[in-house]
Model the fold of this input.
Amino acid sequence: MGRPVIHWELLSKDPAKLSDFYEKVFAWKIQHFPEMNYRVVETGGQGGINGGIMQPKHEEPWPGNMTFYIDVDDLADYRKRIIAAGGKILVEEQEVPGMGAFSLFTDPEGRMMGLWKQAKKQ
Done:
Protein backbone atom coordinates (compact mmCIF):
# COMPACT_ATOMS: atom_id res chain seq x y z
CA MET A 1 0.00 0.00 0.00
CA GLY A 2 1.28 3.46 -0.90
CA ARG A 3 1.78 6.39 1.46
CA PRO A 4 -0.60 9.34 0.92
CA VAL A 5 0.49 12.95 0.58
CA ILE A 6 -0.57 14.66 3.81
CA HIS A 7 1.07 18.09 3.60
CA TRP A 8 2.86 20.39 1.21
CA GLU A 9 4.96 23.53 1.58
CA LEU A 10 5.75 26.36 -0.76
CA LEU A 11 9.02 28.20 -0.20
CA SER A 12 8.57 31.88 -0.97
CA LYS A 13 10.52 35.13 -1.17
CA ASP A 14 7.35 37.01 -0.17
CA PRO A 15 4.96 34.72 1.78
CA ALA A 16 2.38 37.49 2.37
CA LYS A 17 2.05 38.27 -1.35
CA LEU A 18 1.95 34.60 -2.30
CA SER A 19 -0.68 33.88 0.38
CA ASP A 20 -2.81 36.72 -0.99
CA PHE A 21 -2.62 35.19 -4.49
CA TYR A 22 -3.87 31.76 -3.35
CA GLU A 23 -6.57 33.25 -1.12
CA LYS A 24 -7.90 35.35 -4.03
CA VAL A 25 -7.84 32.58 -6.62
CA PHE A 26 -8.91 29.51 -4.62
CA ALA A 27 -10.46 30.99 -1.45
CA TRP A 28 -7.97 29.07 0.70
CA LYS A 29 -7.91 30.01 4.37
CA ILE A 30 -4.36 31.02 5.30
CA GLN A 31 -3.39 31.79 8.89
CA HIS A 32 -0.10 33.52 9.66
CA PHE A 33 1.94 32.48 12.69
CA PRO A 34 4.65 35.16 12.88
CA GLU A 35 6.38 33.51 15.84
CA MET A 36 7.10 30.52 13.59
CA ASN A 37 7.57 32.52 10.36
CA TYR A 38 4.95 30.18 8.87
CA ARG A 39 1.55 30.35 7.21
CA VAL A 40 -0.79 27.37 7.61
CA VAL A 41 -2.97 26.76 4.56
CA GLU A 42 -6.39 25.11 4.77
CA THR A 43 -7.48 24.29 1.25
CA GLY A 44 -11.01 23.25 2.25
CA GLY A 45 -13.25 20.78 0.55
CA GLN A 46 -13.67 17.11 1.24
CA GLY A 47 -10.44 15.20 0.90
CA GLY A 48 -8.28 18.29 0.41
CA ILE A 49 -4.62 18.31 1.41
CA ASN A 50 -3.51 21.22 3.57
CA GLY A 51 -0.05 22.74 3.60
CA GLY A 52 2.09 25.71 4.46
CA ILE A 53 3.88 28.71 3.01
CA MET A 54 7.18 29.86 4.44
CA GLN A 55 10.27 31.93 3.75
CA PRO A 56 13.39 29.90 4.51
CA LYS A 57 15.98 31.52 6.74
CA HIS A 58 18.82 30.65 4.37
CA GLU A 59 19.48 32.25 0.97
CA GLU A 60 18.49 30.65 -2.31
CA PRO A 61 18.84 28.30 -4.00
CA TRP A 62 16.24 26.32 -2.11
CA PRO A 63 16.30 22.62 -2.87
CA GLY A 64 13.51 21.27 -5.01
CA ASN A 65 10.47 22.80 -6.60
CA MET A 66 7.01 21.34 -6.65
CA THR A 67 3.99 21.13 -8.83
CA PHE A 68 0.72 19.91 -7.53
CA TYR A 69 -2.70 19.88 -9.13
CA ILE A 70 -5.70 21.69 -7.69
CA ASP A 71 -9.15 20.23 -8.33
CA VAL A 72 -11.51 22.80 -9.91
CA ASP A 73 -14.94 22.68 -11.51
CA ASP A 74 -14.30 25.18 -14.34
CA LEU A 75 -10.83 25.46 -15.89
CA ALA A 76 -11.62 28.63 -17.88
CA ASP A 77 -12.95 30.45 -14.82
CA TYR A 78 -9.87 29.65 -12.77
CA ARG A 79 -7.52 30.67 -15.59
CA LYS A 80 -9.23 34.09 -15.52
CA ARG A 81 -8.83 34.29 -11.74
CA ILE A 82 -5.16 33.40 -12.01
CA ILE A 83 -4.46 36.14 -14.54
CA ALA A 84 -6.43 38.69 -12.49
CA ALA A 85 -4.40 37.83 -9.38
CA GLY A 86 -1.02 38.17 -11.12
CA GLY A 87 -0.31 34.66 -12.38
CA LYS A 88 0.37 33.45 -15.93
CA ILE A 89 -1.16 30.62 -17.94
CA LEU A 90 1.32 28.16 -19.48
CA VAL A 91 -1.15 25.60 -20.89
CA GLU A 92 -4.70 26.77 -21.59
CA GLU A 93 -6.39 23.36 -21.45
CA GLN A 94 -5.31 19.88 -22.37
CA GLU A 95 -7.57 16.85 -22.36
CA VAL A 96 -6.52 13.56 -20.82
CA PRO A 97 -8.84 11.16 -22.65
CA GLY A 98 -11.29 9.39 -20.37
CA MET A 99 -9.94 11.08 -17.26
CA GLY A 100 -10.37 14.85 -17.42
CA ALA A 101 -8.50 17.97 -18.44
CA PHE A 102 -5.79 20.19 -17.01
CA SER A 103 -4.22 23.62 -17.34
CA LEU A 104 -0.79 24.70 -16.12
CA PHE A 105 -0.03 28.11 -14.65
CA THR A 106 2.66 29.96 -12.76
CA ASP A 107 2.05 31.94 -9.60
CA PRO A 108 3.57 35.44 -9.17
CA GLU A 109 6.95 33.90 -8.19
CA GLY A 110 7.10 31.67 -11.29
CA ARG A 111 6.21 28.41 -9.51
CA MET A 112 4.39 26.07 -11.89
CA MET A 113 1.14 24.57 -10.63
CA GLY A 114 -1.71 22.67 -12.26
CA LEU A 115 -5.49 22.86 -12.41
CA TRP A 116 -7.41 19.60 -12.81
CA LYS A 117 -11.01 19.01 -13.85
CA GLN A 118 -12.28 15.46 -13.53
CA ALA A 119 -14.18 14.07 -16.53
CA LYS A 120 -17.91 13.61 -16.02
CA LYS A 121 -18.86 10.01 -15.43
CA GLN A 122 -21.23 8.65 -18.03
